[in-house]
Structures are given as structure tokens and as C-alpha cells.
Amino acid sequence: MKQSKVEFFRKYGILLVLVAMWVILLCVSPTFRTVNNAVNILRQVSVNGILAIAMTFVIMTGGIDLTVGSLVAVAGVIGGSIIVANPGNWILGIAAALIVCALFGAMNGFFVAFLDVPAFVATLAGQTIARGFAYVYSDGKPYTMASKTFSAIGKGMTPIIIFLIIFVLCHILLSMTKFGRYIYATGGNSKAAAASGIRVRQVLMKVYVMAGLLSGIAGIVLAARTNSGQPAVGTGFETDAIAAAVIGGTSMTGGIGTIPGTLVGILIIGTLNNGLNLLNVSSYWQQIIKGIIILGAVCFDISSKKLSK
Amino acid sequence: MEQYRLEVKNLHKRFPGVYAVKGVSFSIAPGEVHALVGENGAGKSTLMKMITGEYIPDEGEVYHNGALVKAKSVADSQKNGIAMIHQELAPLPDMTISENIFLGQEIMKGKFLNHREMDRRTAEILKEYGMEFDPRTKVRKLSVAQIQMLEIIKAVRRNADVIIMDEPTSSLADEETKKLFEIIADLKAKQVAIIYISHRLEEILKITDRITVLRDGEYIKTVPASGVTQGELIEMMVGRTLDNRYPKEEVPVGRPVFEVRNLCRKGVFEDISFTVKAGEILGFCGLVGAGRSEIMNAIFGLDKLDSGQIFVDGREIKVKGPQDAIANKIAMVSEDRKIYGLVLNRSIKENISLPNLAEHHKSLFINKAKEVREVKEYEAALNIKCANIDVAAGTLSGGNQQKVVLAKWLLSQPKVLILDEPTRGIDVGAKFEIYKMMGELAKKGMAIIMISSELPEVMGMSDRILCVSGGKITGEYNRGDILSGKVTQESLLHSALQEV
Of A151, B11, B27, B369, which one has the fewest beta carbons inside 10 Å? Predict the structure, then answer.
């Protein structure tokens, strides 16, 4: 009986934190009670949520990907340039943006998987290279797009639907496929995984390419929402992505984590941003409170895990 | 009146859900080597942690040279002169021998370290212990045995008069073990009391004075080592009789299943050729570092081969990595299960199915019902003791972890099974089960290769034994020679030590 209670907290503790936040906000803020606001939160987290899912895969292998924010900008300027030149050809714009982002992911993967460069270092370098690339490519100027079809991707329920589809697909990939198992095993103990016949380097390479691709999708959604591809956008986005993954129970040493956990993590961050705005907390204070809540959530999670040992 | 070096009276320790030590008392005289034996989980480690101050006992007292000690930390007990040489040694690998020895007691010259003096004294100490090393050698370059020696030197230098050794010989080869025993005899002469924890009963009977047996946290008995047999000790440890320590099954040997020809890896081993037949257990003996594990790692694709051929069922195979070996029905239980055997933070289920996913689940997706069915079958067959198959492999005891590693490879239904030190560091009961499992597998026609540093184990379980020394095969013996007494531990050791 007691054991099952502990187990419950270990598994769902972080979800309780999210529910508690909702209950408090529902009580104190009338605006929070509206459907409109709920849709707002979801739309706001969709871009960061996609990045957080990308980050979860990478962290799960024991690595980290600091390029995701820069790739949001890369996707925006590549897609933007093509769509500005030829508004009818938005599909080509999206395709080109995703390919370039996947190539950046492949670059990260090459250094991490085949040259054994630590992921932090490889992607830190990748971060500034990708950011620089976005500026050089756009000459520092934003592309303002006029394609109605393209901008529909960022409006209404579309970003939410895109995010949810990615969520479901990635959850299935990680929890039900052989490849998902290989990711867990590689992150948990890459030597044991290799000795079990898993081609660890290939697994790593695929994960980094996938992270690049997902970052590209996030970048496209953001560009569509703002009708522009800007080289400066996405700076610091990796922090929310890392925070969401970690709040959601992903272990920084690899091998542990789930996609639904990360969903809860990004919803906690989204709710926090939204709730603090509704409560008129100054944006300076918001940053401090956010940091404290991240620490609190993770400490809660760690202590509930210790209890179950 | 004789005073005890260390006296432990009625120690108790409870953890949430576990009553780990239930009233244990024993005493050690100066110059006594006192063994502590019991299966994994019998309470040996908890007891030692109470003596060294890592845990505070719930009840009971520890007396050191007649005085009550109330150690609150390891540092406290070290100051008192109680030192522990851990099973997993923790030196500072990038510091020199001299820096390690003088860590925390550096010799100063004014405000600065006096390296010259420390190096000079280290050289003296090393000479005293028969180690020929430059004091400025990095500890990283030493072998496990040499590091252990270094730890003992450090303990003695701190004037420790009680030294606890936890499984000191588990990663030593026979020659190194001999050296350790010489050191122990030396410490004994200096009136140091030694608590010696080991699963190896032969050596316990050889070098200790008295033996205390624990079972399930309870004190069973203290007996003089001279008046007890291995069988009696095992009976006390497990609470029942194991009539035969090596339940070797005599299996008719079939056709050749596995063959290697002229394997070579430059500077590591050369010209290695041997054949294993269906139902045969081929034992490999030799010193640690002689090349035994290296040969197997290369066969399994963990290391590169420079030249040579590998055949399974008479067909030559190319092994570029473990995936090729696995695809050709070769399985290997590696020497170090925590590094190459298990993903400790993942579940028993995931660990067991890991090498088998590719073959047993042809589509992109894992057939979860099939997976659970297969894993449960092997969990039951190997008698893995666990709450359920979803608990992390790292939470299991050593013996059960080893069974998980075996299960994952047995599920792959190999034709050739390589076992590298399959019983290292696991208790008598689990060892026995692994030996029995080997017999059953041989009966089914599997070709088994077993590397072991324990000569009695190799002799007890093998149909044929190859000795490896300096990367070459230096001797071959068959079971008939062993049973007839023509081949003894001494002759095996002789081939293992043969200069090449």
C-alpha cells in the first residue's frame, strides 16, 4: 500500500505540480478560466514544445543540443527567402528549410558520434555557426512574407495540431519501436549497448539529425506565426527546451526520460509564463520565479525518486 | 591478559524494510587474520560500514584496543587506526604514487610541498614492499594488484592496526594473490589485525586464523580455520549442504561447432587456434593480462583482429563488430558486467531483450506481448530474484545481475557461448546455479568457452583446458588428465607462468 503510493508520486509527481498550478490559477485569475487562454497557452508552447521533444531525444542519449535555437532562425531565413521570392512556392521553402536544418543536425551528429567530440562542445560550436549562417544568409535583414497559405501554418489551431502530431509520433517512436529502445540503451550505457550488437554511432547520428529536423519544423511554425523569417529569432530557446525535458524527468546522464514527461515539462513552463503575465508580475521577476519553480520541481522529483529506493 | 585489537559486541542495524545486521559479536586479536564469510546480502558490508563509521549502529558497541569507539565518520575511524581496502579501489589515477601515498600528510618545506623528500621516502617504501617503480609514476599506469598494494601501504603508513580487506583477490591472478598473502603474513607479524572478506573459501582456509560466518544478518558461528572444511563452511553459509561444488555433467561431445585459426592482434596475442565442439566446455586459464579476455573480445568484435579466421559450423564468418558475432550465434558474457553487460538504469526486461530485438521483432515495432513472454520464460529458468521484470537492473544483487546477463544471451539461442569470469564476485548459491546452467546448456549441444582465474573452477567445470601466457597458448589438458590427477593446479599454474 505504502509502496504503491510512493510509486505513484514517483511516476506522476511532476504532473501533480502542473495540476496544482492550474488549480491555483483557476481560482485567482478569471482570464485563466477562458478557453481562449487555454488555446493561447498551447499555441505558445507549440514551438518550444517541439524543441523540447528534440532536446529530450538528445539528452536521452547522454548528450545535449545547444543548436536548436539557432536552427529556428536558420529555418526562418531559408524558408523566408524562398517564399518572399516566390510566394506560391511555400512547399519548396519549407522543404529547403528542413533539409538545411537536418544537415546542421548531421554535422552535430558527425562530430559527436564519429569523432567523439563532447556533445556540449560540438553543439556549442554548431550554435554559433548556425546563428552566423542565418545572419550571413539574410545579410542581417528579416524576410517579410505575404503568403496567406504559409502563414496559416502559424494561425489558429494549426501549430497546436502540428505539435500534437509530433508529440504522438515521437512518443510512439520512443516507447514502442526498436529504435526507441536503442536510444535508451545507448544513453544508459553505450558500451553495453555496443556489446549487445547495437550500432551506437548510427543511433547517435540519427538522433542528432532528427533533432535538427524537429528544430527546423519549430522554426517554420514560428516564421509562419510572425509572417517573417528573422536571423535573430530563437536566441536562448535551448534553455526552455532543456528545462522542459529535465522537469519532465529526463536524466542529464542519459537513458531515462519520456516524451509525455517532456510534454508536462513544457506545459509547466507555458502555464508559468502565461499565469505570471495574467497576475501582472513584472517580466524581471518572472525570470527569477521561473528559475525557482524549475529548481523546486526538479528537487521534488528527485526526492520522490529517492523515497522509492 | 590478552587484549583484543577489535571487539564488536551485539551490533544491530535496521534500514527501512530491511533488518540488515541482527546482533553480531566477534573479536580479533593482534596479529590475527579473521575471515568474514556469508552469501551476498548476509550483512557483511553493513557490518564493516558500522566498524569504519560510515553507518552508526542502532545498538551495540565497537571496542578498539579495549577502548569504546564512537566513530561518526570514516575519517574518525581512520584516525583511530581502522582502515578499509575497498573492493572497488578509489585512488587518484592522475596523481603520482608518491602524491597518493602522502595525500593529506604532505611533507612541507616552509609553505611549499617538498616533492624531493616525499619521492625519496616513497622509493624506500616501495622497495620495502618489493615494488620496482619510480615514485613519480602515475597511478593510472599500475595494475589493480599494484593499486591494492598501494592502498595497503597507505593504510599501514597511517599506523592502522586494523585493516579490513573486502574481496582483495577478486581481480587478482594467482601470482599476484601470492604476493598479497606475503604482505598479509608480514602485517600479521607486525601485530596488525586483519578482517578478510572473501567468497573464495580455499584461500580463506589457507591464510586466516579464525572464520566468522554470517547468514541473513545473523551471527552463525566463529570457528578456527584449522578445524573446518569448505563443505562445512558452505553449509553454515547457506544453511544447507551443497554436496558437490562443481556440478559438472558428463556430456558426450559432438561435432566441432566453433573454430578459430591463427588469430593475431599485434602486441596482444598471436597465433591463437582452437576448436570447441558441441556440448564441450573449454576452459581458459592464465594470468590476468595474459591475453585471455583480449582474445575473446576480438572474437566477439569488441576489438579489432589483425589477422586470422573464425568459423561457426565450418563456415567462415567475418566479424566487424558485436552485431556480426551475434548474427552468427556467438554470445559473450563479458568480464565486467557493469561496463559491457548491463544498462544499469534500464529494466530487467529491456536488458534481456536488447540484443534480441533485431532478430525476434522483425517489424519497426516491438511486439510487447512476445517480449514479456520471452523475458519471463528466462527469468523463471534462471531463477532471477526480483520484484518484477520492470525494475532497474542496477537494483539487483551481483549474482542476480549476472543471471540477467546470462538470460539476455541465452534468449539469443547461441551456438557458441563465451563466459568471461562468469562467477566473479558472486556468492556460492548463485555460483552453483550458474554451473548447473552451464551443464544444461552443454547437454543441449552448445559450445561453451569459459575464462576463469579460479583454477578449481576451471578444473571442476571444463572438458578441456587451454593455458594462455603472454598472448600465446602454452598448454592443453583434457578432463581425463585432471580426473586421474595427472594435471594439478600446480601444473596449470606452471603453463600459465611459462615464459614465451
Answer: B369
Q: Which of B212, B184, B188, B209 is nearest to B47 (CA)?
A: B212
Instruction: Tell if the CB–CB gap between B350 and A181 is shorter than 8 Å.
Output: yes
Question: What's the half-sphere exposure (Cβ side, CA atoms, 13 Å) at A8?
Answer: 6
End-of-domain residue from the set B203, B238, B273: B238
R_g of chain B computed on alpha carbons: 24
A59 touches chain B (CB under 8 A): no
Residue A177 near chain B (CB below 8 Å):
yes
Domain count, chain B: 2
* B204 membership: H or E segment, kind and range: helix B201-207
pLDDT tens by residue, chain B, 500 residues:
458 999 999 999 887 666 788 899 999 999 999 999 887 667 888 898 899 888 889 999 999 998 888 878 888 888 888 988 876 666 677 888 888 888 877 888 888 888 899 999 999 888 877 777 888 888 888 877 788 888 888 888 888 899 999 888 877 777 778 888 988 998 899 899 999 998 788 889 999 999 999 987 889 989 999 988 888 888 888 776 555 678 888 888 889 999 999 999 998 899 999 999 999 999 998 877 788 999 999 999 999 999 999 999 999 999 999 999 999 999 999 888 888 999 999 999 999 999 999 888 888 899 999 999 999 999 998 888 888 898 889 888 788 899 999 999 999 999 999 999 998 877 777 888 889 889 999 999 999 999 988 788 888 899 999 999 888 898 888 888 877 777 777 777 777 766 55
Same domain, B225 and B286: no
Select from B334, B335, B337, B331 the least CA-distant residue to B396: B337
Is the dihedral angle over the CA atoms B289, B293, B295, B298 positive or is it negative? negative
Residue B1 lies in a domain: no
Question: Which residues share a beta bridge with B451?
Answer: B284, B420
On whether both B181 and B293 belong to a single domain, the answer is no
Nearest CA in chain B to A174: B365
Q: Which of B340, B357, B365 sits opposite A195 (nearest CB)?
A: B340
Question: How far is the alpha carbon of B357 from chain A, nearest alpha carbon, in Å?
Answer: 7
Q: What ipTM score was computed for the predicted complex, to two decimals?
A: 0.86
The domain total for chain A is: 1
Q: A199 vs B321: CB contact, 8 Å cut-off?
A: yes
Q: Kindly state whether residues B174 and B297 are assigned to the same domain.
A: no
- Partner-chain residue, chosen from A177, A178, A191, that has the shortest CB–CB distance to B339: A191
Backbone angles phi, psi at B214, to 5 degrees: -115, 150
Of B334, B346, B358, the CB nearest to A178: B358
Statement to judge: residues B21 and B135 lie in one domain: yes
Residues of B in Cβ contact (< 8 Å) with A178: 357-358, 361, 364-366
Which of A176, A179, A255 lies at the smallest CB-CB distance from B343? A255
Domain around B308: 256-497
CATH number of the domain to which A47 belongs:
1.10.3470
Q: Does A196 touch chain B (CB under 8 A)?
A: yes
Selected residues 249-278 of chain A with any CB under 8 Å from a CB in chain B:
251, 255-256
CA distance A301 to chain B (A): 17
CA distance B20 to B13: 6
In a domain, A98, yes or no: yes
